[in-house]
Amino acid sequence: MFNTCLRIPEAGIAVLGIPKCACQSVWSAVIEAVSGERPDDPPRHPVIAERRCTAAEAKAEGLFVFAVVRHPLDRLVSLWGNKIAPAGSGDKTRTRGMKALQKQGYTLGASFSQFVGEVAERRDINQHTLPQTEFCAPGGVWSVDELIRFESLPEGWEIVRERWPALPALPHRNPSARGDWRGMYDDDTGSLARSLYRRDLILLGYE
After folding, report:
1. Is 189:182 a contact under the CB 8 Å cutoff?
2. What are 130-184's pLDDT values in tens digits?
3. Burial environment of residue 123 by CB neighbours within 10 A (0 to 12, 13 to 18, 19 or more)
4. Is 149 helix (H, G, I), strand (E, B) or coil?
5. Cα separation of 207 and 199, whole Å?
């Protein structure tokens, strides 16, 4: 799953999926454009398996690579809310993600501050907590041609649709019911999270 692109050769592009950066929504849109289906479980849809590649492979094929990026501290809050915070039963992808995190030592139902502390101990073993720059600039080498900000996603997605008009408007999967992510941080958790994602903050232009 790390550094997973979807080839769209009919448009000369590829889209790099970064977990908790509208990845499910982007993949759903690609599946709908290719198959006409609206998938319940995008990662398990055959279109994903057929079109999956690495960003390096997409670049070698001459495809123009897009990626959606997000403020790393917002992404961390989203992950906690979707897969760690106490909640009712979720969809298949949420359930799989919860089980994977639990196996890696994360505490389901943990407070946000506890979760941030656990991320500090095991950040690099799960794709959801791995820094975004490990996807779009592994080894310090950029593997994408254009970044689309999550914060202005509707406008950014239109740039992709101009290249491939068959794409639908972006569906909103895994919407957050929480307010401003900044309110989740105190001085200690904010300082720790910023140190964990310092490279993302700088290279992605969030600081």
Report:
1. no
2. 999 999 998 888 999 999 999 999 999 999 999 999 999 987 765 665 678 999 9
3. middle
4. strand
5. 10
Which residue, 77, 85, 170, is CA-closest to 128? Answer: 77
pLDDT in tens, 82-104: 899 876 545 556 677 788 899 99
Section 71-84 average pLDDT: 95
Choose between 37 and 39: higher pLDDT. 37
Helices (H), the chain: 23-35, 46-51, 55-60, 72-79, 92-103, 112-122, 133-136, 153-163, 187-196, 198-203
Strands lying side by side in the sheet with 4-8: 52-54, 4-8, 13-17, 64-69, 146-149
Contact 54, 5 (CB under 8 A): yes
**CA–CA separation, 42 vs 61, rounded Å?**
24
Tokens of 84: 């760690």
Sign (positive or negative) of CA dihedral 127, 206, 54, 47: positive
- The one-character DSSP state at 170 is P
| Eight-state DSSP code of residue 145 | S
Our CA angle for 178, 17, 75, nearest 5°, is: 25
Vertex 175 angle, CA 118 and 29, to 5°: 110
